[in-house]
């Protein structure tokens, strides 16, 4: 088995607690490694697992898990766990896994899941939309699409995600989340291949030549996967196209490094907004 067989990898470091008296990783932990990688594989597909299964009307249950050992991992090894979709049957989905230390192949795995009714655990056909996602990812196709438009067009999806992130997760009062700017703002949403909104943001008019970007939100389980960055770039592009030469935003302090990495520079002192510490950040835009 070669590393080149896989598009997707999950990286982990072996913990001391996972090593047995032989000073190698205890065999049962390898299944945990592959299962952890499968969780990250769903993120690579831009599919929040729980929400996606609910919308598809089913759940995945492990039918068979086979592990074959070639060599052992040891404490503090840095491992790459490769996962790929192999095939989809009527109700089954088969994944292959490969565990590598550098270019050295250690362990392989085959995981067979069955798509089933969560109430009765009886199998049902894998939805065509899910089949298509697997094939598209392994073919190297993008897992999201960013759309820019007005609130009338995008507000339902953008609003649902903002409610989940700002009101439910961050406990910002609803009366502070919704304002008059939504109706006139330009909004951007990133959708996955099931059509679900996974990231959003908006662009409002500020001082002459300055775009105000805000309400940036990413689905809780998909952060760090580039969806927020894609939305931000779409808003910046729209701002530059209409003639703005700067973008200004109020960044939550927890997201400061995210914006700094994308070219934003802090201005002034931190301040509190909706009970959360923020920092004004600005970026020069290129036409």
Give a description of the structure.
With 287 residues, the protein is of the alpha+beta class. It is built from 8 helices and 12 strands. A hairpin with a 4-residue loop joins strand 7 (186-192) and strand 8 (197-205). The chain is 29% helix and 37% strand. The longest helix is centred in the middle third of the chain and has 19 residues, at 151-169. The protein has 2 domains: 3-138, Roll (Thiol Ester Dehydrase, Chain A), CATH 3.10.129; 144-284, Gcn5-related N-acetyltransferase (GNAT) (Aminopeptidase, 3-Layer(aba) Sandwich). Strands 6-7-8-9-10-12-11 form a 7-stranded mixed beta sheet, with helices on both faces. Strands 1-3-4-5-2 form a 5-stranded antiparallel beta sheet. The model has no long low-confidence stretch (mean pLDDT 96).
Give start-end ranges of low-pLDDT stretches.
Answer: none
Beta-strand content estimate: 35-45%
The assigned CATH architecture of the largest domain is 3-Layer(aba) Sandwich
Q: Give the overall shape, derived from the CA principal axes.
A: globular
Compute the average pLDDT. 96
Largest sheet: 7 strands, mixed
At the first level of CATH, what is the class of the largest domain? Alpha Beta
Record the strand order, biggest sheet: 6-7-8-9-10-12-11
Q: Key features?
A:
287 residues; 12 strands; 37% strand
């Amino acid at each position: 088995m070669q590393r080149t067989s896989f598009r997707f990898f999950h990286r982990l470091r072996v913990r001391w607690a996972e090593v047995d008296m032989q000073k190698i990783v205890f065999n049962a932990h390898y299944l945990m490694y592959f299962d952890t990688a499968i969780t990250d594989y769903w993120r690579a597909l831009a599919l929040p697992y729980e929400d996606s299964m609910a919308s598809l009307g089913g759940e995945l249950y492990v039918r068979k898990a086979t592990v074959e050992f070639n060599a052992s991992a040891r404490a503090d090894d840095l491992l790459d766990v490769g996962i790929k979709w192999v095939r989809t049957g009527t109700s089954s989905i088969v994944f292959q896994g490969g565990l590598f230390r550098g270019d050295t192949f250690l362990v392989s795995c085959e995981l067979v899941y069955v798509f089933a009714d969560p109430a009765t655990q009886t199998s049902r056909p894998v939805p065509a939309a899910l089949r298509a996602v697997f094939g598209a990812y392994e073919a190297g196709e993008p897992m999201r699409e960013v759309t820019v438009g007005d609130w009338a067009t995008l507000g339902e999806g953008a609003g649902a995600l903002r409610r989940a992130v700002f009101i439910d997760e961050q406990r910002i009062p609803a009366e502070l989340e919704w304002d008059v700017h939504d109706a006139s703002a330009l909004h951007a949403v990133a959708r996955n291949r099931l059509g679900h909104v996974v990231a959003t943001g908006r662009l409002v008019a500020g001082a002459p030549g300055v775009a105000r970007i805000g309400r940036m939100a990413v689905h809780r389980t998909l952060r760090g996967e580039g969806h927020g960055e894609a939305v931000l770039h779409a808003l910046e592009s729209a701002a530059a196209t209409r003639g703005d030469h700067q973008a200004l935003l109020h960044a939550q302090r927890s997201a400061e490094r995210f914006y700094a990495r994308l070219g934003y520079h802090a201005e002034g002192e931190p301040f509190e907004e909706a009970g959360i510490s923020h920092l004004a950040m600005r970026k020069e835009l290129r036409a």
